[in-house]
Structure to design on (208 residues):
């Protein structure tokens, strides 16, 4: 087996394992969600989930390889995720090696509650250390963009929000896309964001 094939296989199983873990959290309702992992930077190549499939199932047809224009470069009947261009723009604008998109009730409610402010900021939370923020008064901000039906427009809206310190963007009443330098870090960021959303909503429910 060539080194390139071994790297490809290893990235495939890493993404499949992440998909299984997020599925165990029930973060792919109704075939929603898409995941990707970068295979090469120049030229850009990444594995992305096939569109419209049940991401809870693990099959040999879960991912396909796409190029810098989000087009499949394999002979396949599978279609890349409809939202592949969001992953593409994240790889173009950041040092991300993995990008994860999930729809959860918590991320949808937060995106609706704070849509007018177009962002939500968390402070005084231990878990923001997951973003390598160690200052006592440190904070993390998550931008919120409109859920444009045109996916090119949506991808641009997400890309426009990317600046140092941003590790995820909420899409109003849709979901979140979070990323990291590799699969481990992307999952850590996503889990930490979902924790912060759930905490915030539960605290609000207590009317404190
Ligand atoms: C039924 S979910 C609507 C599409 C979506 O938002 C999503 O995340 C899944 O789309 P994909 O093409 O990646 O399956
Ligand atoms: Zn989506």
């Amino acid at each position: 087996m060539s080194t390139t094939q071994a790297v490809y296989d290893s990235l495939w199983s890493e993404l499949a394992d992440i998909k299984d873990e997020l599925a165990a959290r029930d973060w792919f309702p109704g075939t929603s969600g898409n995941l990707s992992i970068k295979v090469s930077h120049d030229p850009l190549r990444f594995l992305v989930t096939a569109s419209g499939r049940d991401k809870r199932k693990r099959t040999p047809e879960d991912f396909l390889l796409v190029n810098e224009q989000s087009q499949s470069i394999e002979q396949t009947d599978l279609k890349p995720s409809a939202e592949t261009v969001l992953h593409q723009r994240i790889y173009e604008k950041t040092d991300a090696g993995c990008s994860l998109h999930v729809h959860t009730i918590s991320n949808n409610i937060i995106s609706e509650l704070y849509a007018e402010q177009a962002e939500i900021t968390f402070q005084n939370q231990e878990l923001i250390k997951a973003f390598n923020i160690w200052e006592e008064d440190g904070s993390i901000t998550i931008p919120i963009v409109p859920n444009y039906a045109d996916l090119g427009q949506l991808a641009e809206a997400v890309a426009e929000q990317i600046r140092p310190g941003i590790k995820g963007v909420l899409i109003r009443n849709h979901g979140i896309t979070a990323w990291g330098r590799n699969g481990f870090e992307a999952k850590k960021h996503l889990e930490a964001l979902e924790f912060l959303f759930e905490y915030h909503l539960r605290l609000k429910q207590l009317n404190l």
